[in-house]
């Protein structure tokens, strides 16, 4: 099954950066929005596979409303130039069956 993780993409001076509030520490950059999203998808897949290999729980996608309520946009210094999207990835447990 596919999982959809929330991704916040921020415009920097010369490129873009992205993070997923669902997966702490999972961040990436890219020269274009498209490249940043591709990199983010790979980073999330690697992170999930790592969790699976280590026997950790796979992070559950919580959705936008959860993170708004949790105050992520207050705590985190997000610049004015950002947007929110989702990245769809294969559940890693399916990659190993």
What would you say this structure looks like, in words?
With 97 residues, this protein is an alpha+beta fold. The protein is built from 4 helices and 4 strands; from the N terminus they run βββαααβα. It has a 4-stranded antiparallel beta sheet. Strand 2 and strand 3 form a beta hairpin. The protein is globular and about 35 Å long. The model has no long low-confidence stretch (mean pLDDT 88).
Could you give a short description of this structure?
This protein is α+β, with helices and mostly antiparallel strands and 97 residues long.
Strand percent estimate: 25-35%
Helix content: 25-40%
Q: Based on Cα principal axes, name the global outline.
A: globular
Would you list the SSEs in sequence order as H and E? EEEHHHEH
- Work out the radius of gyration: 14 Å
Structural class: alpha+beta
């Amino acid at each position: 099954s596919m999982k959809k993780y929330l991704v916040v993409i921020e415009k920097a001076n010369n490129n873009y950066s992205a993070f997923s509030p669902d997966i702490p520490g999972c961040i990436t950059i890219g020269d274009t929005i498209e490249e940043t999203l591709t990199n983010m998808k790979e980073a999330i897949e690697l992170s999930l596979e790592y969790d699976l290999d280590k026997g950790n729980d796979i992070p559950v996608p919580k959705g936008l409303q959860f993170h708004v309520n949790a105050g992520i946009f207050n705590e985190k210094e997000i610049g004015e130039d950002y947007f929110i999207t989702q990245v769809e990835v294969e559940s890693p447990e399916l990659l190993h069956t």
